[in-house]
Design goal:
This protein is mainly alpha-helical. The protein is 39% helix and 8% strand. The protein has one domain: Tetracycline Repressor, domain 2 (Orthogonal Bundle), CATH 1.10.357. The protein has a two-stranded parallel sheet with strand order 1-6. It has a two-stranded antiparallel sheet with strand order 2-3. Strand 2 and strand 3 form a beta hairpin. Helix 2 packs parallel to helix 5, helix 6 packs across helix 7 and helix 6 crosses helix 8. The relative contact order is 0.12.
Length: 240
C-alpha cells in the first residue's frame, strides 16, 4: 500500500496520543513530596539588643536551622520547661537534670563534707529549675567543684567524668534523658519531626572540642532519625 502525504499525517496523528501517554508513564509516577518549613524559623532578628551569647536565626546556612529560643524551636533547648520523668523521678527541664548531677547526693557525699564549701541549692531543688535559673545553679556548683578539685558528677551513686575526652557514661545518660524528654512531651516531638531533614544548629557558640554531651543538636538529630524510622505514637523508642 502506498502512502500519500495525507495518509502519512493521519498515521502520525493516530499514534501521537500513544507516544505522549507512554512518555508520561515512564520514570517516576509522581514527584517526590516537597517539605515546607515555617518561614519564621529564619525570620531575621535585630542584632542590636540581642544577648551576646545568641546566634540569631538568620545565621543559618543552606539546609540549616538555628534552634532559636525566639520561636517554637526553643522547645528543643535544654533550657525549655519540658518536664519528664526519668528513673522514677520528675525533672522540670533537661537543664535541671544536667546541673543537678553536680550537687551532693547525700550528707556523706565528699562534695557535701568538704570544709568551707556552701551549696546554694539542694540537688532536688536544682532538678526543678528551668532555663537560666538552672544554668546559674550549675555555675555556682562549678565553682565549688573547682575548689574541691572534683571533675566528676554523679547519678544514682555512680560517679562519671563530666568532661571526658571520649563519649562515656555521662554522654549516654544525657542521650537517654533527652530521649525521654522528647518521648514524654508530644509538642517537643512534633516540633522535632517538623524539622524534617534540616541540619540542626545551636543558638549559642560551642566551645572548641566540646564533649559530645554538649552537642544537644546532634543528640536531637539522632533521636529525630529514630522517630522517622519508627511510628511517632510508639510507646518506647528503640535503644541504640
Amino acid at each position: 500500500m502506498s502512502f500519500t502525504p495525507v495518509r502519512c499525517w493521519l498515521v502520525i496523528l493516530a499514534i501521537l496520543p500513544l507516544t505522549i501517554c507512554s512518555c508520561r508513564t515512564t520514570g517516576r509516577q509522581s514527584p517526590e513530596p516537597v517539605t515546607t518549613y515555617p518561614a519564621h524559623w529564619w525570620q531575621p532578628a535585630p542584632a542590636e539588643g540581642a544577648p551576646a551569647w545568641e546566634i540569631l536565626p538568620q545565621a543559618a546556612g543552606p539546609g540549616e536551622v538555628i534552634l532559636s529560643k525566639r520561636n517554637e524551636l526553643g522547645l528543643l533547648s535544654n533550657f525549655a520547661a519540658t518536664p519528664f520523668a526519668f528513673h522514677g523521678k520528675r525533672y522540670a527541664s533537661l537543664e535541671g537534670f544536667w546541673q543537678m548531677m553536680k550537687y551532693p547526693e547525700d550528707p556523706r557525699d565528699p562534695r557535701a563534707t568538704f570544709p568551707g564549701v556552701d551549696w546554694a541549692y539542694t540537688r532536688e531543688q536544682v532538678a526543678q529549675l528551668t532555663g537560666f535559673a538552672a544554668k546559674h545553679a550549675g555555675d555556682l556548683a562549678d565553682k565549688n567543684l573547682a575548689k574541691i578539685g572534683i571533675s566528676w558528677v554523679s547519678f544514682e551513686g555512680k560517679r562519671m567524668e563530666y568532661r571526658p575526652a571520649h563519649p562515656g557514661a555521662h554522654y549516654q545518660l544525657i542521650v537517654a534523658a533527652t530521649r525521654e524528654k522528647v518521648r514524654q512531651n508530644p509538642e517537643v516531638r512534633r516540633v522535632l519531626l517538623a524539622t524534617g531533614n534540616l541540619i540542626l544548629k545551636p543558638d549559642h557558640p560551642q566551645e572548641p572540642n566540646a564533649p559530645a554531651a554538649w552537642c544537644y543538636y546532634e543528640i536531637l538529630t539522632q533521636i529525630r532519625t529514630e522517630l522517622q524510622q519508627h511510628p511517632p505514637n510508639a510507646k518506647t523508642l528503640p535503644v541504640p
